[in-house]
Design brief:
The protein is an alpha/beta fold. It has 2 domains: 3-103, 3-Layer(aba) Sandwich (Rossmann fold); 125-216, no CATH class. It is 53% helix and 11% strand. The chain has helices at residues 16-25, 50-58, 77-89, 110-148, 161-172, 177-184, 188-196, 198-209, 213-216, and strands at 3-9, 32-37, 64-67, 93-96, 102-103. Strands 2-1-3-4-5 form a 5-stranded mixed sheet, sandwiched between helices. β1, α1 and β2 form a beta-alpha-beta unit. The longest helix is centred in the middle third of the chain and has 39 residues, at 110-148. Mean pLDDT is 80; it is low at 212-217.
């Protein structure tokens, strides 16, 4: 029985190594890791991603699939729920790095199955809501950065895009500030600033991402 880590890297700031390191730091013993690079999670189903598609061939009954969060398994609520059920149907256990959730199809008790399925539905709905909120914040950040023009950019953000995404994910799961600080390596003050004004946090990062070449040099 193998433990497979699946990661999706959609921006230049994210790295597969960082995602894998987070999983190992959370206590997972990974036998194999696969990543889809440059793939948008909000527009591409897991089965349509090159490495995501391979998971359906790689995983066998008794194996464990580890993902950072359930949003890695689909582009929306329906995709996530369908994917989890497909894997459980063939005996694969799914575990998440964030909040250490476990989903499997081992139980035959109808009450336990009902609770499990309700939890899966809730997590999938939360993942979609978070993705939509993040997308809205990104749009607002782009508009804000454009409105400011190409003048003074302000202080360079102390966080990467992946760290910002992790903070948003964990805040969306009601994680504590201390837990988020430990998971991301960011200061509590930085996390509070992101929490209090996520649009400004996105705008600051976007402004530095899109700064003119002569400013970046």
């Amino acid at each position: 029985m193998a433990t497979i880590f699946y990661g999706r890297v959609s921006t230049v700031e994210q790295t597969s190594e960082h995602q894998l390191t987070q999983a190992v730091a959370a206590g997972f013993k990974i036998d194999r890791a696969v990543f889809d690079n440059g793939v948008s999670g909000v527009s591409t189903r897991l089965i349509e991603r090159p490495e995501g598609r391979r998971l359906f061939d790689i995983l066998r009954a008794g194996d464990t699939l580890v993902v950072r969060w359930v949003d890695r398994l689909g582009r929306n609520y329906d995709d996530v729920v369908e994917t989890i059920r497909k894997f459980m149907g063939v005996g694969v256990v799914i575990r998440t790095v964030i909040n250490n959730m476990t989903f499997d199809g081992a139980t035959n008790d109808p009450m336990q199955k009902a609770v499990r399925d309700a939890l899966i539905a809730f997590m999938a709905a939360t993942a979609q809501a978070q993705a939509e909120a993040t997308k809205a914040a990104q749009r607002a950040g782009i508009d804000h950065a454009k409105a400011k023009g190409e003048g003074y950019l302000g202080r360079k953000p102390s966080y990467s895009r992946e760290q910002l995404a992790t903070v948003r994910d964990m805040l969306g799961q009601s994680a504590g500030i201390s837990a988020i600080a430990k998971a991301t390596g960011l200061s509590r003050q930085t996390i509070y600033r992101i929490k209090d004004d996520p649009v400004a946090a996105e705008a600051s990062l976007r402004a530095w991402d899109e700064r003119p070449f002569e400013l970046a040099a």
